[in-house]
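haha ok so turns out i had the wrong file open the whole time. this is the CORRECT one, sorry everyone. sequence first:
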Amino acid sequence: MKSNGGLRRFLRQQRGVVAVETVLAFPILLAAGLLIADLLTVVLEREHMEQRAGAVSSVLAMQTNLTQQGLTGLISATLPENGGGNYQLTITNVKQTGEVYWQLNRGTATGLCADSDLAPGSSWPGSDLPELDAKNGSESVSLIVVQLCRQSSDLKLTTGLGLNPLLTASAVGRVTEGTLTLDTDLANEAGVKNDTTEN
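then structure:
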């Protein structure tokens, strides 16, 4: 009889220990789950940004002329109207020599992308673009560089992670024919002289 009472007491103590351990472990497990959910949100958003930048760059690289209406339609088709947060999209046409032919900025914010204020005739900062060759590059070969930058604070993260405040994605496409000519409105916006394409 005594051994049965001792066994019951032991089992009750063990249940109590398990309950206490569960109560202590629950906040840690909850925090880990929320952290994983936030990291997944950031990874998925960055992947979506890369896909959008790649789509814009691929479409523009296939064009010979770009109009205000065409650019607006492309951006509307690739970037979300709602839930996009504060973002900046820069589109830069860079000659193979490294000279910036033109640059356009779109989005709900400015100054987010690092190289978002390049004037026509300036040099592309760095040498990170494929086929860039300042000495032997051709003036008639150019690249479209698309940068998409977004504030991470817009992502509604549950844990308030100390993330980099900026998410960025970029894509590069080689223009199929020379440089991409802008219509009058876009040429004026970009500060390009002598671009005379019909509107």
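The helical segments are 2-61, 68-78, 184-190.
again sry for the mixup
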